[in-house]
Amino acid sequence: MTDSPVPAQATPEAPASVLDLAPVLPVVVIDDLADAVPLARALVAGGLPAIEVTLRTPVALEAMAAIAAEVPEAVVGAGTVISAAHVDAAVRAGARFLVSPGWTPALLAAMKSSGVPFLPGVSTTSEVVALLEAGVSEMKFFPAQAAGGAPYLKSLASPLPQARFCPTGGVSPQNAPDYLALPNVGCVGGSWMLPADAVRAKDWGRVEALAREAATLR
Q: What's the pTM value of the predicted model, to 2 decimals?
């Protein structure tokens, strides 16, 4: 995210670094638009202000817009960003950061020109080096567990200390502390604080409680 047009300090429009907002970045899939605002309020109340709404459902952009308009304490972003069109649509909907599962030169250029922070996805050392060469030092490590987990990221810390990561994919309350203990990990991404049965039941109290537990991880 460095070297992109990101403010030197956090502003209401864009955080200086998504990695520093909370130890856990909730990865949210919203199927029912009516869930967006109460779900976001529960996460924020639990101490997780950054919320990644994935572009995997027809209502994702509307959900982001609703959260941006009605939950000002939330820092809502877009996940599963894989095209320049996604970048434009997400920013128009109110996304204050962008997250991609991987990157291409075209996608990187679009994210750099978006005006908001972004976390391009990587899973290999060569991808990390290529992003560093492009002036980007903050990244999503995905799929984290399948790509080598905490031991892999630990092995990158010495040769590539300037790279910082948000590992996502297979991260749980059990292994999150292993990632968060690493010097090159700012936060982890996960969805365990949003169990499907709780969301279906609109049990936002349970979501808030799980978010509060996640917010204490380190």
A: 0.92
The DSSP result for 54-105, as a single string, is: ETTSTTHHHHHHHHHHH-TT-EEEEES--SHHHHHHHHHTT-S-EE-SS--H
If 0-12 CB within 10 Å is exposed, 13-18 middle and 19+ buried, where does residue 95 land? buried
Asked if 52 is an active-site residue, the reply is yes
Task: Classify residue 58 by burial, with Cβ atoms within 10 Å: 0-12, 13-18, 19+.
Answer: exposed
Non-local (6+) Cβ contacts of 106 within 8 A are 84
The two structure tokens encoding residue 180: 């968060």
| Tokens standing for residue 189 | 């991404």
What distance, in Å, lies between the first and last C-alpha atoms of the chain? 23
Residue 72: count other Cβ atoms within 10 Å of its Cβ.
Answer: 10
How many CB atoms are closer than 10 A to CB 154? 17
Give the model confidence (pLDDT) of 60-85 as tens digits.
999 999 999 999 999 999 999 999 99
CB-based burial, 173-183: b 16+ in 10 Å, e otherwise: eebbebbbebe
Work out the mean pLDDT of the chain and round it to a whole number.
94
Catalytic residue among 138, 140, 154, 208: 140
Cα–Cα distance measured from residue 126 to residue 46, given in angstroms and rounded to the nearest whole number: 37
CB 146 within 8 A of CB 169: yes
Catalytic option among 52, 112, 138, 208: 52
